[in-house]
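Pair request: fold both.
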Amino acid sequence: MKVGVIDVGSNTARLLVASVEGTSVSQLRRERHYLRLGNDVHTFSRITPEKLAETEAVARRLARLARKAGAERLETVVTAPGRQAANGTALIAALESATGAAVVQLSGHDEGRLAWEGAVARMEEPPELVAVIDLGGGSCELAVGTPGLGPRWVRSIDAGALRITRAHLDRRRPASEQMVAARHHIRQLIADFDPPRPDAALVVGGTARAVERVLGSPFDAEQLEGLAATLERVAPEWIVASHGVTAERAQTLLGGTLVLAELASRLDTTLEVARGGLREGAAIMLARAALAAA
């Protein structure tokens, strides 16, 4: 079955059109548009009318592209901005109007489960116990589970790359006290985390792919700390010029790297960038639901 998933997050709106058979997901089309809804949420605690209008226009375009690519079913999933914005219901309404299809507001737990399903589905030979970190702009999810049975331990924290950047590191070169505050904040958020020790750990999201451009994959906590030390000293333009990271991603890469470093240390393992994630997981579930209803 061909399905389309529009994923509206704190940094971007993304489209995946895929052919799904069981847990096999074959990509037909991808699109990305930077919206930065998380900026509005951080500054105003809500999404401004101007940004809602932009989001509606982008979603309308993505829905049109999905149908043109042959999507038989279309669904929009909304992550952290819908949970964190005071007017999250207005965002849902705008997306429903724009796409003419179902819009689902994901909880942090939902987001973690879907990211785990999508990441593990793209593994060739998954081991017995797999951890998946889904680092977005507004939140970060960690799920640990067994292939065939699904995730059994899931946590979500408001520590996305954009959110940490806006809260603590919103300068071209952050001061040392800002770095200390950011690390302290992240450690507080994961203080009660006691996940099962995985046999493999995957990480999904735009920040993870940007880190991979610099460090390769897999990478560990020590390498991430080294990258953070470099990013603390240089302007964002350096990472754009030297490694081809987009300018938008470079602005929040330090905040995201700090989150990944803390989680890699807590899991005591290396992290490998996954080839699937939230959108693949949502596509599998959408196709499964459609077939069940047929």
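--- second member of the pair ---
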Amino acid sequence: MVQARSATPVNILTGRDQFGLGFTTVSRPNIVPGQPLILHNPAVADGEQFNPAAFSVPPTGVQGNLGRNVLRGFPVGQVDFSVRREFPIYERLRLQFRADAFNLFNHPNFANPDGIMTDPTFGISTQMLGTSLGSTGITGGFNPLYQIGGPRSFQLAAKFVF
């Protein structure tokens, strides 16, 4: 099975309470003219990050001129593979073996970059996609090992069919 999707949008927010309403992440920044929105940086995930110098906080009470979801994160691509073999043992009794491989080629799939300007990790993806989609426990979600975007993993199974 091949799973692929284009990059999802990332909303850039100031991280400040521009309107005095107690919401710290709802206001959009202004674009700084002449600054590139994306920087190439080989030290970060996929070699790209949002340029912090390309955005500025607008005056209090004013919404910035950056549109909603202007920038995009990273695309996703993953190949999963499964093979099964069944052996007859006696009349209606059969033994079935199965091998599954998730993210067969171990292609790295990164989560969206941080879009909050006041965060120290603004513009950088800090985790893999499988980890960002949820985890087991109180927050819910599936184990990151079996999510799309997780690391390469294999599982083997044997089953008696009667």
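Observation on the second member. The chain has one helix and eleven strands.
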